[in-house]
């Protein structure tokens, strides 16, 4: 009986696949890449047309030996790494290490780990796609040329240990540019006026929008007083009532980017956590009688295509669960943006026979949350549009026009299962619905005119999710790079996360300023997006990969030499604290680490003393009366604890309020929503709440 060796990337995937293939197949894991460029040198031969030098990765010798032995004893070897450029390159490296004939059909790929998908993949083995390999190789060489030649320059001129990645530098620039916009922003005052009207049917509110049929902007208190004086004694009447039916269409199923964004909005998962959980769902989990099975399709994709069998399954489930009116007249098709790998699918469940409730006892809490999100988004994407009745009411008084907007859901359609989340900056007021009829010509009475002062706000700092969205919009990176890029720029100390918002560190701003001046193309959004486009064209066989490298490296090498001559030593001013090092007596300095600022002895490396930077929050410990300070958990999450720790062990995840509860005297904490901040009593028997006064 002939034996076939199948090599995948991870033990979890190997376990899932082996049960589908039977005894004639042996499934082993390569544990990712086995061959790469050397860490100790550039690894790219600049004299021989950028030929990369690959070596076996240190520590993987025994694994390579084991795979070679298994390949030698097998009649056939199938390489089954992930269905993308990275996976294709892993298969190509494996083929070289195992001595396979790469002209043979030794490559299989699948986008979901199900019995049908695996059996189909084995039947349709193909040759390794060298265009994909070249595209990945070009990315690797480009990143190595930038990282290994630009980083040492930063070490010499700024600080040891710095790195300048091709994509990560652009991501840092986005954060720095946003911070510059915020600093340069000048708030502008404006006023709004809301009227409470009484009609024959009831009360309703409307906002002032026009004067003499022109859009009205009220920039000051004085002009608002003028408006209020002119409205004194005015007669008000409904001048127009317009009703419309609006069809609200569902969002497409998830891509990598939209999954990371929505998981952040709805589940508060970082991109890194989202991808870790998605990998587990894709590779397979034990679900009882079915055994180990992949629960979602491949999670690194920019395509919104859905396979016809999955659409048919979804149609059956929707009609059986909700009724035929919840399925659209024609099966939905979504168009992907730009160049996408249309062989890929959107992220979806592998079987509609596994609703989230079915998997409750088999998945961890976070796995289930993410699976439910993917399930609901996919099912909603296949459902009927929601029908929304909208009503617009115009009320005139003298030269002024007020407008009320209301809406109500006539038919929920896909909203019965899912509604897309929104970022804070996209948040809008809920218009609600009018519960009584209004007719044009009807006189109404103004019960109250409520004026309110506002100031325009600067652009919001990026969150991890909104930075992913921006990178996708600008064509920076690809689905597999978003999460690791954002993780890298934080771990390297270029960007810090405060209150879930990304802010550049002083180091990040200095590095980006240098790159903008001497290496503008490296941090230029359009240049980087064009490089990504060229990598796509390599994959499609339209461009030779070495030509792309040559076009990039010629100007880059010249700029590198010029910068080496021109850039002087950059002095990073250290903030000296009042804290004295108890080991050597020096005043400790403030440093920026992965999880924010901390204190370190300037005598490093002779003295390696470090300690947390205790930032007081303005409240005292309810246990001992000492000041409360900001602390960080091992995972970097901010919490609040007593400065007398370890003598006092008081901690709180929520920021303590500056005042005690007026009802019971207990500590109050600040709870923030998109609209306001609340002081909430921590005494469970009291739970008194009040709105915080804005500074």
In short:
With 695 residues, this protein is α+β, with helices and mostly antiparallel strands.
Low-confidence stretches: none
Summed up, the domain count is: 5
Provide the structure class. alpha+beta
Total helix count? 17
Largest sheet geometry? 6 strands, antiparallel, barrel
Task: Identify the overall geometry.
Answer: globular
CATH superfamily of the largest domain: Topoisomerase I, domain 2
CATH A-level architecture of the largest domain: Orthogonal Bundle
CATH class of the largest domain: Mainly Alpha
Q: What's the N-to-C terminus distance?
A: 79 Å
Radius of gyration from the CA trace?
Answer: 30 Å
Q: Can you tell me the CATH topology of the largest domain? A: Topoisomerase I, domain 2
Overall pLDDT: 90
Q: How many β-strand stretches?
A: 30
Which bin fits the share of residues in helices? 25-40%
